[in-house]
Design goal:
It is a single chain. By secondary structure, this protein is mainly alpha-helical. Helices cover 46% and strands 3% of the residues. It is globular, with a radius of gyration of 23 Å. It starts with 16 loop residues before the first helix and ends in an 11-residue tail after the last helix.
Length: 313
């Protein structure tokens, strides 16, 4: 006699979107601070649009798809995919782990194809001209130069606190994508900008709290965790999405292009692959090789070696 398969009863009809989001963001899968910020950014923006106090069970698949489209429908495929994946993970967790009646990301809000861009690395001249522009605020110039000189991921640098900085040795420990704590290093350009960035109006300097701060103090309804608020100014940590928008506004570049360009420029300078791996903190040489591609200028320069020898009169 066969037994009927067990079916988990759906429950949690009273759970609000805000409560469901908080429960998900408290799970071990979001324990890494960088991961937590990425998930929280996407999920919070979706539930703000749908109504934080609405019951989770009342939200439809179509509403989830509409919110995703309104928020990131015109963004680059990588941005759409990243935020879509965060919301999908949250909803699947609600359904499978908590057995709450919850919507799904609809089929028409599908993952988008990310086309490999062979021109992602920009020239050193372009980067240095960008960082010397006087119309760009100090915070942006410090962040962009730090991303370029450390060849670090934007989320890693945005997660830094002032007390993490070893200003004397121009380095800081960061928590990498895999969870390991590793060092990143910068040069004199970043060092000079950091000293200016940390200076307060009264002549003293910030000693604790987030390194890169938002322009305004957070409103009570969206107040972040205490660790993400500067004790000196009351301003919140600068978010990834805002940093991304500003680089796009000033230079039509993506944050990751600074890391990509750094690796490419090191390769063009004939730095050994092993040292480039140490700088970018990639574990697999094949991963690093995706970044270390010669620029069009470098390829053009070596073409002279193919020319016939010049006659000497």
């Amino acid at each position: 006699m066969s037994t009927a398969p067990k079916i988990a009863a759906l429950r949690g009809g009273h759970v609000t979107l805000a409560a469901a989001a908080d429960a998900f963001l408290a799970t071990p899968r979001t324990a890494n601070p960088n991961t937590h910020r990425a998930y929280a950014s996407a999920v919070d923006r979706v539930i703000d649009r749908l109504g934080r106090e609405r019951p989770l069970a009342e939200v439809t698949d179509a509403e989830i798809g509409q919110a995703l489209t309104e928020l990131w429908g015109t963004s680059a495929p990588a941005t759409w995919n990243r935020n879509r994946a965060a919301v999908t993970s949250w909803l699947i967790w609600c359904q499978t782990k908590k057995h709450w009646a919850a919507p799904s990301v609809p089929a028409d809000a599908e993952r988008r194809k990310e086309t490999a861009d062979e021109t992602r690395a920009v020239t050193k001249t372009t980067i240095h001209r960008l960082l010397s522009r006087r119309d760009i605020p100090l915070r942006e110039r410090a962040l962009w130069r730090m991303l370029y000189e450390t060849a670090a991921r934007a989320a890693e640098i945005l997660a830094l606190n002032v007390e993490d900085l070893d200003l004397e040795h121009r380095r800081a420990p960061i928590r990498s994508k895999g969870g390991a704590v590793e060092w990143v290093y910068w040069d004199s350009g970043t060092a000079h900008l950091l000293l200016r960035l940390l200076r307060l109006p009264d002549g003293t300097s910030r000693t604790h709290g987030p390194l890169f701060l938002s322009e305004r103090r957070p409103v009570p309804a969206r107040r972040p965790a205490a660790a993400d608020i500067c004790p000196h100014t009351g301003h919140a940590r600068l978010g990834y999405d805002r940093a991304r928008v500003l680089l796009e506004k000033y230079a039509s570049l993506d944050l990751h292009q600074l890391r990509h360009s750094a690796a490419t420029h090191l390769g063009e300078a004939e730095v050994p692959l092993q040292l480039i791996m140490g700088k970018t903190r990639h574990k697999n040489p094949r991963t690093t090789m995706r970044y270390v591609k010669p620029s069009a200028e470098a390829i053009a320069a070596i073409t002279t070696h193919l020319a016939p020898p010049r006659r000497i009169h």
